[in-house]
Amino acid sequence: MSKILEKENQTNNSQNNNEKKTKLLQADLVKDALINSIKKLNPVELVKNPVIFCVELGAILTTIFLITNLVQSNHDESLLFTSQITIWLWFTVIFANFAEAIAESRGKAQADSLRKSKKDLNAKKITSIEDRIGQIVDASVLRKGDLILVEAGSVIAADGEVIKGVASIDESAITGESAPVIRESGGDRSAVIAGTRVLSDWIVVGVRSNPGESFLDKMIELVEGAVRQKTPNEIALSILLISLTIVFLLATATVQPYVIYAGKSSTITKLVSLFVALAPTTIGALLSAIGIAGMNRLLQINVLAFSGRSVEASGDVDIVILDKTGTITLGNRQAAEFIPVKNITEKELAEVAQFASLSDETPEGRSVVILAKERFNIREHNLGEKDNLVFVPFTANSRMSGVDFNGDVIRKGATDSVIEFVKSLKKDTVIPEDLKAIVEKISRSGGTPLVVSKNNQIMGVIYLKDILKGGIKEKIQGLNYVGIKTIMVTGDNPLTAAAISAEAGVSDFVAEAKPEDKLDLIKKYQAQGHMVAMIGDGTNDAPALAQADVGVAMNTGTAAAREAGNMLDLDSNPSKLIQVIEVGKKILITRGSLTTFSIANDIAKYFAILPAMFSAVYPELSSMNIMYLSSPESAVLSAIIFNALVIPALIPLALKGVDYKPATATELLRKNLLVYGLGGIISPFIGIKIIDLVVSFLHLA
Question: How far is residue 53's CA from residue 68's CA, in Å, rounded to a whole number?
Answer without folding.
Answer: 23
